[in-house]
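Q: I have 620 residues here and want to know how they pack in 3D. Can you give me a structure?
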Amino acid sequence: MSETNTVAETLPQLNESLFIPCLQRDYCWSQKQVEMLWDSLLRGLPLGSLLVWDRNIENREDPAYQFIRHYVDERGYSHEKEVRRYSKRLPNFPESYSLILDGQQRLTSFYIGLYGSYTTRIHGAWKQNESSYNRRHLYLDLFSGDDSDSHDRGLVHEFDFRKSGGLNSAGDSYWLRVGTLLDDTQELTEAAFLDQEQFIAKVKEELPTSLSDVERSNAIDSAEQLWRGVNEREAILYQTTLTDEKTARELFIRRNKGGIELSGVDILLALLTGYWETVEDVGAPKDAKNEIEEFTERLSGDERLSEEGFTFGKRFTLRTLLLLSGETPSFRKDGRYDGDLLSKAEEIFRDDEFEQAVRDAFELAADLGFHNAALSSKTVVTPVVQFLYETDYDTTGDNEEIHYWLATAVLNGIFGDIGSQRVLETAREHIQESDGHKFPAGAILADLSGRGTTTHLDEEVLDTLLDEVNYQSGSRRNVLLTHLYGSDRRAGHTAYEVDHIFPRGKLANREYLEEQGVAPEAVDWYKEHRDHIANLQLLNGDGANQSKGDRDFSEWLERVEEGEVGSLATKKEYFETHWIPENEAQHEYPQFEQFLMAESGRKQSIREQLRQTLPLRNSV
């Protein structure tokens, strides 16, 4: 059965008779996607159909979730109670309701745009501060709407999430909040939508008298298009199915192949919601989806873990539970898991020691120099979580074996080269066989050897790393630099900056280098080695990097000596802190190769330091 409705007819049904099933993914559209949907509505472009699941009410137990009204695109947000990242479970079943199998993202986007808000964190801002977030509402530029114009982001009707509206300072845009379509009541009902005459009268009252007749006419035309798009265009096609849960899940998977494809994580989470007990809590019941969301929120909001850059999501949590329960630690789109093992995963999850093991493992990783930016993936820490959960291991010792595991796995790219599933299963087997006194790093890595990648860490491997790892090497670069500087500085952390000692741009400027006395035949070598690990230093966030900028190294050293660079008092202090050769001749461009590669050069200096700080093993 199918029917068509307007946005105004459909949205009042959300959270009244239309809800989201447990097998749906979380809302995930960006602001740009929401804006493009609204533009498509006004332009009359196809929006796709909705698939609605109706079932007999008798013996109905499937969980349902509410549509989000005020959305925040950030895990661990806790500043405004009504602003949410995840859907809230419906506490009680109404007498009659339907579930959206396909179309949740579109309906939520209309709901947020008309009746809610969208909150984002300011880039780089501290996530625990409420002032770090922008809560915005959807606005339409009433001066837009001309198909012949060239509009930003491909929009004809220019929508934007903003803090406020009105005429902009340039006078070329007038922003009307989309929510102006509603009266001032708090509930979204069909009666809350203003009729066309009321709405246009309200818009006319808000338009400034300074507008020209043409501007006023264009603005009113755009407002009328907005009203008609919401109230008259039958844009939402319903297709309704009456089926059982198994068939509904198959329909959901098939329908989502054409959009943002349903992931194995989504399927597993839906299965867990069916397998796990529903826990009664004050105010509302909790199920697997609720509890895992709350678990990831708690971890992501933890002060210490957050300071180290760690955020946690469902993928990491579910994969860790699969590993600990004995299941294959990978996500299956066919949904074929061992039901007994999924039930075992529930027992592990509800054990307080599981969450403590996750916290302890990541705190220990950070203590050993593996904050978030120094990990290729949080999965590298998963075997450590298993080890701490299944043993009585005391983390206050030297933790040498865990250190060796993390360093070897990240620096050699073991998870990427061999594959996470094989690595995790191999680690699980050896951890289960271990005596619990020390992490079985050697046994795991020995078992993984012979698969085309290096599975040990010694001086020879270190020499290879010092030639391979450079400015673009991500977590491997951050591991080496963090171990070079020790616990005082962490490469990749927002409080510190990875900086080129000899400026990167100038090392690729042939004309400039030759003016500085560099031999023409050496220029290509300079460009090739400008990102070498030995040309990188880790500056703290006291303005030193901004002070250096693109200055020549020798010129910047003069500023250091004059006390003009942050906390650096003297050149001698700088040389000692950063393992810089003190030979002044090596601070000039013609001696760049010697600065890096000479026996007294920086590569050799940092090699000697890393020999002390990395958990190297003697070659066998």
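Q: Anything worth noting?
A: The CA atoms of residues 150 and 156 lie 8 Å apart. The first strand starts at residue 2 and ends at 5.
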